[in-house]
Amino acid sequence: MKKLTVILFIFAIFAGWTQAQTQQITLEDIWEKGTFRPDYVPGFQSMPLSDCYTVVSRSGIDKHLFATGELMETLMKSTRLTELTEGRINIRTVDEYSFDAQEKKILLAIEQEVIYRRSSKAFYYVYDIQKDTLISVADTQLGKQSFATFSPQGDKVAFVRDNNLFISDLNTGEETQITTDGKYNHIINGMADWVYEEELSLAQAFAWSPDGSKIAYYRFDESEVKQFSMTLWGELYPEEYTYKYPKPGEANSKISLFYYDLNTQKSYDLGFDPNEDCYYPRIFWSAVPNQLIVMKLNRKQTEMQIFAIDLPQLAKKVIYNENLSVWIDIPEEVLFLQDGKRFLFTSEREGYNHIYISDYNQKLTPVTTGEWEVAEILYIDQKEQKIYYLSNESGIHNRDLYVIGFNGKKKQLLSSGNGWSTAEFSTTGSFYKLSTSDLNTPPVHAIYDKKGKQLRVLADNGSLKNKMKEYGFSQKEMINFQTAEGTTLYGWMLKPLDFDANKKYPVLIYCYGGPGSQEVMNGMRRMNDDFWYQMLAQKGYIVVCVDGRGTGARGADFKKQVYLNMGKMEAEDQINVAKYLQSLPYVDAQRIGIWGWSFGGYLSTLAMMKGEGIFKAVIAVAPVTNWRYYDNIYTERFLTTPEENPKGYDDNSPIFFADQASGNYLLIHGTADDNVHFQNAIELVMALNEAGFQYEQFFYPNKNHFIYGGNTRLHLYKKMTDFILKNL
Q1: What is the pTM of this model?
Q2: Rounded CA gap, 499 and 476, in Å?
Q3: Nearest Cα to 663, choosing from 548, 509, 532?
Q4: Which has the closest alpha carbon to 258: 305, 210, 221, 299?
Q5: pLDDT tens digit sequence for 592-638
Q6: pLDDT at res. 193
Q7: Which CATH class is domain 2-35+471-727?
Q8: Is 696 exposed, middle or buried (0-12, 13-18, 19+ CB in 10 A)?
Q9: Which residues pair with 449 in a beta bridge?
């Protein structure tokens, strides 16, 4: 007995010594020093013509063979770039680059300025690889350009400047102005308005035809869209930034669709009624010469049509139509086969997102089926009639690479079947770069051949893995439980490294929960937040995340049950998470907190107000507090309009439940948030003041929805950490 006691005593000392030797994570490690910065492949791009890829190195833009990794040549040397610009530009100042289709020229974006989430403007230059020359796409004195894009022949570049569409001839230097009526906050040509960019993922609103003879483009008439203003601080008299932002039930831009013919130098209207209250989420060219494809969505977002338009006759034909009782998640791409008769896309029409092939007469053939979801089509091998795609067939928390025949046969798993993968294919489809992580392992980036054989590793994050060991990272574990309503929910849990089941621990819940989202995945995605959670675990906290009803990866029925009542089930499920945690013997039932950002901030706030005191501490960053204040495409997709569904808006808006607030509450918002307006925070503050509820608030002047830049992220996470340590 004495011997056993001595052994246990020695083990306890050793365990304590080991814990003491573990380095402590600091916020500076995460946000300032880059201690846990992951490895990646800078500037990786598959080249448009050959089985080669490029990366950005200190020497410049390097070209490698996919097959062997051999460095073929440095296509643009950093030293030469500096010489050509008399020291103004070097490889570190290049924000983006792209190749023409012949791989003879490189388009460089310099001094890039972010406009909104998917838009920017920059000075663009073209480097001719063979001639070793550099020219400006446009006169820099006229201002920066947006969405500069090579023509298919590489002899021209189209771009948007000052809300108008232009073409620059690289051989002559001549600039052609396609549109002339562009005006800020009135008319936009070739570039999307704010709400299309944010909610339909359409920012560049023009496309070259495959033969380079035409450009299809959008014209947005914002004249009747109401304006929103934000104050920008810093000058003696602060400035007002005003832009068009349509809220639920309000007017949208009127859309006209055109194509410009470079031979006739004229624009032609495609004949869609600009006064029709609908959306045009996508416009692109098919494999048929001079054929445009236009996707149309009704305002309720329950009916989608795809039109084929033959030019110049403008004959329209509906080649696909989809009607659902609830919203349609539009496919990111519609991919046309070279036979000119068929196209591929994904749809939830049968309850799960799957791949379909359709002909122009709407004869539909499913390629994939089952109670799992296709996430993305990556590559179509038309010669071998194979489709490469990502799905969660191996488990709702996984994302794997598969290949399948056009006929739905000979399906093959190409990735591990136990992790989260993304892939980028070479132009011929013979090779691809696969990036795979799992719940506790940072991504490995490697090159594979099309049969799934790994050829070599580009970056394995070995250094980060060693850092994770050095700092004593704990292992996340998957959890699940059943709610009182009988719904099984899945999540992950992170415990302290020295976890003792006989102790009681405080718990911080992270939530997002927006329709179709997924935070519980078998991969490391929000890595800086993961490092922060590890820091909290070192300080004795358990961190938990659970995807509730309305989230993605589990089919349309699970996702769309929140329709017309967004927020109700989502908040109930985060309260259910807290109740489940209270049932665990190692959880301190009186010390459960919750935090979230954007929809997650909305959800953490609403769950706190409806949770009857179950949450001791709550943090909301940039939350929506009333869906009447958010944009119409997103909000009407799930709630329809306030006139049609007032209860859906009011029954789950935090400002109407301020008198039920409890616990310790921290509200954070950027004053220049173009997405979730600062108005949301102000309205909630007024409601909380009226209710007599005491809380903390912190606002970041001139910061947008992402609250970053300079020292901001470090400051933000210090603010949140201090609040948690004090109140949880």
Answers
A1: 0.95
A2: 12
A3: 509
A4: 221
A5: 999 999 999 999 999 999 999 999 999 999 999 999 999 999 999 99
A6: 98
A7: alpha beta
A8: middle
A9: 431
